[in-house]
Amino acid sequence: MEKFEILGARELNGKIKINGAKNALLPIMTSTLLAPGNYSLNNVPDLKDTRTMAELLRRIGASVSFKNNQLLINTVNVSKPVAPYDLVKTMRASFYVLGPLLGRLGHAEVSLPGGCAWGPRPVDIHIEALKKLGVNISLEGGNIVAKGNPIGNNIKFKFPSVGATGNLMMASVLGKGQTILKNVALEPDIISLGDFLIKMGADIKGLGTSELVINGKDRLNPVDEFDIIPDRIEAGTFLIAGAMCGGSIEIENVNPDHISIVIDKLIESGVRVKTVKNSIIVNGNKKIKPVNVTTAPYPGFPTDLQAQWIAYMTIANGLSTVTDEIYYDRFTHVPELNRLGANITMNKNTATIIGVSNLKGAPVMSTDIRASASLILASLASIGKSKISRIYHIDRGYEKIENRLKKVGADITRS
Ligand code: UD1
After folding, report:
1. What does residue 236 show for φ and ψ, rounded to 5 degrees?
2. What is the mean pLDDT of the chain?
3. What pTM, to 2 d.p., does this model score?
4. Does residue 114 carry a pLDDT above 70?
5. Is 245 annotated as catalytic?
6. What are the pocket residues of ligand 1 if the criterion is a CB atom closer than 6 Å to any ligand atom?
7. 243: which residues sit within 8 A by CB, 6+ positions away?
8. Which domains are assigned to the chain?
């Protein structure tokens, strides 16, 4: 199994280009199932999840090729509307095929995603909403079997779930009549999915607000060119790396509006942040001020940067708290960060971090995508050598992270 070796405490300086957003890409890939034809997606990150989703689309009957960060998808043949367990268990976003397959075929079978490394992740909001669209849903052999063509209805989500919003948008655009979705997610990934669906010919009003009005169409058209938006989580991760390691990092190809809360928090922590069009420059500061964060749905502080922020606060000058209000159990990185010399204690979904003057390199183990990112950040800031094992997690969400960090001066090798 591959691991990273990092020799830490080196200043980082230079430019890093941000790639396309995984969480925008995955539902856009499944939405190509809605209308038969040829699609071309650009700025596609070369991730394990991209390849897993490509494999899922192939099993359903599509043909997919991926080269030079461009995906070519043909969905003329969609013959087997099944997302099997072996793929769903490695990537929960496989659940995104449910909505479009119902729209196109009125039939989908998707393995029920179990929990994940950091606790239960239910899909009840998706299921309840699809039932309201008249879809018949049963559980057979661990698979959700959904049958019926969606019929418009009014739905108010009890929580603005990203996945349920995406799935229901995709289920409704070919549905019969009007669907009104209330309390929807506002994440840029969902807005981008909406833009893509509108480009396919979907009638969606209210994109960017918490209420969507969708008038079902009889058919949609394929989209021959679409650019995946920049990944705000990747951007936030590299900004925190710059803030932690001193020096000056410029991240390019980013939409600063998508991470304004992260920029505000970084400034509060005492680092200088400058935004120029699609670039953000962060200048590290040796004295980091402690800054509390609580995660919330967009435009709040993203749960996908919670682990990285905790890593940052381990070397702040004082006490801070980080609370995760989206995923209460998403803290598997905490004991690993403590192995590097951090002083973090947990109480329910709140981490209390007392900053230490130095972290010290150690062997640690990554447990999920963002936990891995936090361990890389902490190791980069540690004195001495760290070894991070199980790094296959990081390859799910960050394209060749070690090469990009090396370019700005990090001593990191994969072995
Ligand atoms: C997406 C992101 C993930 C991010 C998360 C929250 C993708 C592929 N993944 O995941 O990186 O961490 O948003 O920003 O885009 N919930 C329910 N029932 C449901 C659905 C969700 O109770 O049916 C709960 C979840 O347990 C969680 C919260 O709602 O507590 C948010 O989940 P959701 O927004 O659905 O996240 P995902 O779409 O799974």
Report:
1. -60, -40
2. 96
3. 0.97
4. no
5. no
6. 23, 26, 93, 121-126, 159, 161-164, 189, 303-304, 326-327
7. 266, 269, 271, 282, 284, 285, 288, 312
8. 3-19+230-414 (3.65.10.10), 22-216 (3.65.10.10)
